[in-house]
């Protein structure tokens, strides 16, 4: 229900932005968790698209929680494919600075040409 919406965050970026970052492993590890990087690696020619999608998801999540992108440790929230759920969903570590407990967090990522866009909605649980 609309009255259950607490906040919304959105982000958009150019996918090409991630192409030069593919070879900077140390930098990528400051943004993405190990499993996100493993899943991106399996995407071959779509690796930069996958990482751009994960990036905009994290940005929109951060905005929905009212935080700056570097106010929390980014690898603690991973936007991953789940075999059980049949799509991508959030996996938060116990030490995640976003404290998503007590909330339902829904994120949608879309791609068009060279753009990745994400919207995150935080709902009362």
Automatic annotation (TrEMBL):
Organism: Entomospira nematocerorum
Pfam families registered for this protein in UniProt: ACPS
Alphabetically ordered keywords of this record: Magnesium, Metal-binding, Transferase
A GO term, aspect molecular function: magnesium ion binding
Source species, domain of life: Bacteria
Gene Ontology biological process terms, A to Z: fatty acid biosynthetic process
Protein name per UniProt: 4'-phosphopantetheinyl transferase superfamily protein
Classification of source organism: Bacteria, Pseudomonadati, Spirochaetota, Spirochaetia, Spirochaetales
Residue span, 4'-phosphopantetheinyl transferase domain: 7-71
